[in-house]
Structure formats: structure tokens, C-alpha cells
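## tool: complex_structure
## caller: assistant
## args:
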Amino acid sequence: MQHSRVDQLIVLFERALEAPPERRAELVCEMAGGDGAIEQELNSLLAAHESAGDYFDSLERDLIPPASAAVFGAGLAPGGSASLAEVQEALGDSYRIVRELGGGMSRVFLAKDMRLGRDVVIKVLPADLAASTRADRFRREIQLAAQLQHPHLVPLLASDSVGSLLYYTMPFVAGESLRERIARDGALPVRDARDIWRDVLEALAYAHTRGVIHRDIKPGNILLSGRSALVTDFGIARAIEAAGDDASETAPGLTIGTPAYMAPEQVTGDPNADHRVDIYAAGLVMYEMLGGGLPFSGASSRELMLARLTQDPAPLTRADCPSGLAQLVGRCLARGPHDRPQTAEALLAELDAISDSAAVTDPERRQSSLRGRSVVALGLAATVLLGVSLGTWLQRKPRERPRSAVPAVSTPGPSIAVLPVVTISSDPRDTVLAAGLTEELIATLSRAGNLRVSPTVSVSVLRGRGLDVRQIAESLGVVHVLESVLQKVGPRLRFQVRLVDPRDGSARWTETYNREMDDIFAMQDDIARAVGREVGARLMTGPDGRLDTRRYTPSIVAYRAYLDGMEPRLLDTPAGRAQAIAHFTRAIEADSNFAAAYAGMSNVYLEEAGTVPGKQREAFALARTWALKAVALDDSLGGAYAALGWAENALRNWAAAERALKRAVELDPRAPRGFEGLARLYMLVGRPSEQLAAARAGEDVAPYSVAAARELALALSVNGRCGEAIEVLAPFKELTPAEGVAGVVRGQCYAAMAMWPEAIAEFRWAVENSGARTALAFLGYALARGGQRVEAERILDDLLTGRKYSHGAFGIASVYMGLGNYDAAFVWLAKAVDEYSVRIYLMGPMFAELRRDPRFADIRRRMRLP
Amino acid sequence: MTESSAAATVTDLLRAVEHGDRDAIDALFRLVYDELSILARRQRRRWHGDLTLNTTALVHEVYLKVADQKQFPVESRAHFFGVAAKAMRHILCNHARDRGRKKRGGGAPHVTLEPAHEIAEQPALSDEQLDTLAALDDALESLERIAERPARVVECRFFGGMDIDDTSAALGISPRTVKRDWVFARAWLRREIQLKLE
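## result:
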């Protein structure tokens, strides 16, 4: 037949099939149009078609695999073809097989361990796998895995070989696998999914710190028993690979696993693949629980494998799933391991953070949450607020945080607030030591897997307001409060700790430590351990059983110098900053690998940069250098990345800043600085919703902190919610430099709402706190807009002549803007960009009109803004 | 051949294949064949949980190994699989013929490709299976003579495990045509095999 006839035939054939069967013969006759050969051809093809589909399916199923096995010599028949009886015979009297449980490639049996008299699960490795696996090595590897003991891990009991059978045993856990649950129910309720995921992540966190990677995390390996989820087969994949016959011939890296759940680096056999493959797989499992299926499409296992190298996972689109959770899961599925949450521990912390904020959206709570309260008639309310005197404000009770006031269902486990250590000492340096001890204790306890620790800043603010133990505990939503007293006489320390019941202030537990100064690290360990025990926290221990404190330096001299440098008030004045630099220098001299000291140095320069006219860029660059060094010394130090992120931000390296800050947040999700940095970054590059999310996260982590509140207020104002922004900052009316900045932000919000008298009042108030450097210029702006041009021009004159300084060129530009002289404003703004005196407020509501001007495009370009 | 040089070669070959270079097709064919053989030895060492070994898996595996995915546009990838599918068909069917011939003894050999590495064997196929494979191969050859395009579709879909879109890209035809050809070819082959085996 010629080709054109064949094509014609193919088309006619298709058409015939489209017709209902009873019509076909007739249609064929029509189409053939008298050509007998075609008619016969079509009819015979139609007849063959009936069985063709099934036939080829059966060929594909029953012929091709054996054929390829015959050719490639790689058949993987499960467990050999041994019958149940044969297996029982091989096992002998030690186990009595009750029934086969089915399974993947291994055969799985429920059996009774006759020696121990309990139910066990026996997994028999497939015959040829067993053949190529050295039984003794396998047993040894299993022993390592058998040391894992965790409530969410099914432990391994034993491994043995009998005849040609190689098997391992584990306790029988009643319950179904997650695979079965999903198959039956489809997607799970969000709460269930989260609970299950939490258990799995805890098991992973535990095993990873012991250096055991699972490599085959999947729903089939997660058992649901009672209210817990348990992970099975931990360490098996490794055991098999390690005990493989011809290890050199196996593809390097972690190729063992189930294709559908393999991380990209497993698929490509990357030899550097590490525990993060488990993070990826865990992400997939969560995705499946929430979405009912995997995010990649592919008809076969291998297509699925290939898909994750080239496809982006389809985002979760589940209405009742908090977007933060969906995003978190998405990050676990990042193709590059560095873009995922780096540890199960960090992932758990983020999961908990999301759970906490999800509780805020509970409608019941929203009514009592100040943040959520709708501010009706903003202007009116604000005026009313201001009508009340400052004095009344100062006496106002701290803003309640309903989320923490009632320990929410989604924040299980113990919680503690560590009150600042009190000193009884004549040496002022001991105050610093006490602060350091507090900080250390908080840091160590924070690393416990299940303990929620209130951050220093929150506790000290509340303490500073004179609240008692009960009020502090209530405000922070913690169950325990730790008080401590430090006495130091020469080199001898006396440290007394008390665990206080906040309801009545009684001491539930108390302990006194008498130690030498040289012994201070050991003492801190002991205290953390003891407190951990009392509150039921699970503290992390390293492989040698010692507490995982990551203290960063073995040198006490360096440590004390570091503590001296970390005194927050030093950052407020030039003299203080010089002192801080001296302290950190001493610390580094004593221990040149002390990463945290480098990070501290970076932060000082960052702060310094804002104040020295003409030297800003240099200072920022120095800050960056110090931070880079800190990161190089210890890339697990969240504070180092935070410092780096802020420096990159200042230097307008937006992408680098984002990377560093995200890493900081991952490494240290309970520290607000990373979140604050992200909020700033997003404000500059114009990503308002992400800015708000980051600011909220920072505020959640450090409630009552003025820095966090300031970021939140800025984020709210950028998102057009100036009234709420003002409310957020309402409690901060202390006449301190730190809180003075709150006035600047409040003033801007009022200015954005064209409430000039109020704006002027706020800026004036801020000016009285010299820490708010932009306040004077903004006051000028507000005065000009508010009709008091004469005074505004006087301020401008002061700035132009250098009598006063308020952020250099940027401040001058601001006043010109207020006076309506946009030409001059832009000239000075350009100068500000060059001298790096631009403040973040440029992207805020007060400068909105300026940003709409076409000349702003040039400013954007100079600042490398997207 | 190192992995990077393999990748470079494959890229060059595929480019040539796209330009219709027949020698390139043969060269690529051999390369894939060799890779599949190496793969076979490694397969034995691994434990893939739920994965069942099939030709698709092997072809993808080879692809992962030799292909520099960053450089491969979709069309090239599809071409690769198209060639690999052909290689797979020949490997399986030639094996069947060799086995069959050895059983029956003597006879002029088909052109067989010498594997670069020795492939150890596992459970042998039954006579019936061997006959079916041979019949399939013959039928495909007959189809090729009459209608080449549908035969290629069968190679891609049946031996290469490629989906409609991949097949469409590999052969440069529309998905609609792929579907049509597939339906037709299966019926045609079924008829042919029935005739042969009866």
C-alpha cells in the first residue's frame, strides 16, 4: 500500500471507532465507497481492535519485564518465590508466623517471638538482594540503627540470616500505615496532618542528631497508632547499602529509596546528599496528607523521579490550610537542599510558629486581639487617643496578647520565662555577667525540642514595667518562671535558681550552685539540665552525652569580653559604641574563632554607620566584612547571618540580603532580628505582604519589643493600615532613645493621614529623645505641611548650615519635600543615595507622593531597586 | 567514557540526529545500548522499594546519567527517548531471536549488536514468550515497511514507555496523530501476530 492510502486508512479507522458498535459495519461500507479492499481491511482491523488493547496491556505487563530481566539480568522478585511455609521452616522455632502482612519489595510477616512472647514484625529481604548483602555486615549496621529509641520511631529489634533468608525484626505496632489512611480517606484534616507531621519531624530531628538518615521516608513507612505517628525502617536503607557486596559498584550517594519520594539529589546520585533528603521526603508526605496526592505528575516511577528534577511542584491550594503552612511545605520541596529548612529541628520550630499564629485567626480570639480590632473612623479614634494625656498612657497596662494569655491548643508542651538574673555584687561587671548568664540559659533552653522559651527582650520589657511574676507569666503565656540570684566574691560564684509557680509565686524547685568562675560553663550546663528536667524539656545532647549548648567559645576571657560588648545600651551613643568595639576586640584577641564576637562587631558598625556623616558606606562595608567573617567561622550561627543580612541590606545587595536573612531565620527562628531584617528588606524592594508577614513573625517571637513593634507598625503603614500601626506603637512612650524611634513611625503614620498637629507632636516628642535621628528633619516636614513654614525653614537652615544634623542629605531632602520644593528635594535625595544616608522611611507612606513623581525612577535605579 | 564526555557526545549526536544524520542515530543507538548494559549490572545492587524494573525505568536511568539536562530542550530529550526506545526494542527482540536460535540450533543470525559488557543472565524466557517476542518483532518490521510512522509510535510507547506528548515531540507529529497511529498500529499488529502464531 502506498503511504497516502495508509494515512487514509488510519483516519477512516479512527472514524469507524468513533461510531457506536452497531453502526460501524454500515459506516465502514459508506466510507469505503465501493472499494472492497478497504472495506475488508477496515473490518478486519476492527475485529482485531477488540482484543488489541488487552493484548498489548498483557504484553507490557507479562512479557516485557521478564524479557528485560532476561536481557539485563536484573529481576527483583520479592523475597524470592519462597512460600510462607518455606519461610517458616527457615525461621525455625524462634518465631511462629501468624500471617503475611504484605509489603513492598520485602516480604513482611506478623509473627510471635517465641522467646519473648510478643508480637513482632519480620521483614524478609528479597532473595537476590540478600544474596549480594553480607549478612554479618548487615547485622552490624542494624545494630547501629537499633540504638535509636524515640517515642515516634519503631525500633529495630534484631537482624539475622537463616539459610538464604536475611531478615530483621521490629515490634508489632497495631494501626494502619499513612499510606492506607490516605488511600482510604484521601486528604487529611489539617490538624491531623500537622500532628502526624510533627511526630515524624520529631523522629527525624532525633535521628539526625545521631547521624542516622532515613532515606526512605514515605507514607508506607509511617504508622498511625493511637494518637501517634511512628516512623519505621529507620536505617534500613543505609544498612543494606553499607552491607552491599560490591560497594564500589553501587552508584554513589543515596540512591536507595522509593523513587516517588526521592529528593532530587538522591535521584541524581549526588554523593554529597545528606539528611536533607529526609526533609524533602517529609515535605512530600505532608503535601500528600494535605493535598491527597503528590505534586509531580508522571505515569511511572521513573517519570516521577525525572519530574522532580525539572518540574516545580504544584502549589497546595487547600482553602483551610494556612498559607504559612503551605509555604513551609513548599520550601521543603525546594530542588536545592540549601533552600529547604536545614534541619528537622528548624522545621519543627517554624511549624510551631505557624500553629501559634494560626490560633490568632481563631474568630473568638480576634475579638479580644487589639491587632485585629477594627479601628473605626481612624482619625477620630486617633484624636481621642491623643486627647488623653501622656501620663495616662504611661500607666496603661501592657497590651494583652490573647494568643499567649490562654495557652492555646496548638502550643503544647512546657513553656518558661527566664527572669533576668539579679546580682548582689559591688562589681558593675557582674551585672553584665548576670545578663550573660540569663542569655545563655535562655539560649540553651531554647534549643530543647519541646520547650517554648520567652525571649530576653520581652521579659526585660515587662520586668522594666514593674509587672510581677504572675502578670509576666500571663502576658507571655508561660507555665513556668525562673528566678535567679547571682553572688560573686572574687572568683567564687554562688548562683541560686528558683522555679516559681506563677499562680501564687511559690517556689516549686530551688537549687544553689557554688562554683568557681573557671567552672562557669559546666555550671551553666548543670543549671540548664536541671531546669530542663524540672519543666519536662527535652534538651539536646551531643554524641558524647554533653549538653548541646553551642557556646561558641571555650575561653572564659573571650566570653566575658563578649558579654561586655553585648550590653544593648552601648549601641545608643558614640562613646558606648567605641567601648563595645573595644570589648569585642578583646574577645577576638582571646579567641580568634569566636564567631559570635565577630557578629557582635558587625552589629556595632551597622549602628555606627547611621550616625557618622560621610562615612556611612564605609561603616556598612565594614559591618559586612565582620559578618562575613562570622559566617565563615560558624555557618550555623543565626546571629551571624542576621548581621550579614542587615549589612547586605544597607549595601543594597538585595538578593544577598534575602538569602542571608532567610538563613538566619531558619537557623534561629526564635530570634527576632532576622525577621526584622526581612521586613526591612521587603519594605525597600516593595513586597508589602511579605514585609507584613516577616514583621508579624518578628513580633510573635519577641512580643513587647519596641524594635519588633516598630517593624510591624512600618509594615502595617506600608500596607495602608496606619491606624493599626499607631495602635501597635501606642504602648511605647518611654523617654528612651530606643522607644523614641517609635515616635518617628507614629509621626509618619499621622503625616500619611494628613493629621499634621498630631504628626508634629509626635516628631517633637521624638526629637527630645536624641536617639531618633530623623526626627528633626521629619519635624521640619510636618511643620511645613502643617502650615508652620517659618519654623520649618529655620530647621532647614540649621540642617543646611550644619548647625544641626538629622540624617544628612536625606533629612534635608525631607524638609524640602515638606516645603513643596521637589526640585531641591530630588537633588538632595540623589545625594542621600550616594552617601548612603537614605532611610527606610523613603519607602513608607509619608513619601508616597514623592515616589509617584517621575523623577523617582532615577532614584530607584541608583538604589538598584527592582 | 567519562560521564561528562558522554554527555557532550550525546548532545552532539542529538543535534546531528535532529538534522537527520543517520550515522548519528546509529552512534547514539550504540551509546544508549552500552549504557543500558552497564546499567543492568548496577541494577542488581540496588533496592528500590516499590519500583518494579521495566524498560521505561532503564531508559530514564540512562537519560539521567548521560544527558546534561540543563542543555537539553524538550525536543532533544524526546529524540533521545525515541532513539532509546528503538534501542530497547532491538535489545529485547534480538535477545529473543538469539535465544530462540540457540534453542533451535543454527540458522543465519540476524544482525546482533555485541554488548560492550557481558550481561549475565537470569531466569530464561519460556518458548512461548520467545516466540511472542519474535512475532512482535516481525510484525513491527512488516508494519514499518507499510507505515513507518505508526511503527515508530509503537516503539516509543511500548518499548520506551513514552507518553503521548513525548512521543509527539520525538517523532515531530501532533498528539492527535500519535493517538490515531497508536490505535491503528495495535490493531494491525494484533491481527498480524494472530496470523503468525496460529
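## assistant note: The CA atoms of residues 156 and 170 of chain A lie 5 Å apart. The first strand of chain A starts at residue 95 and ends at 100. Handing back to user.
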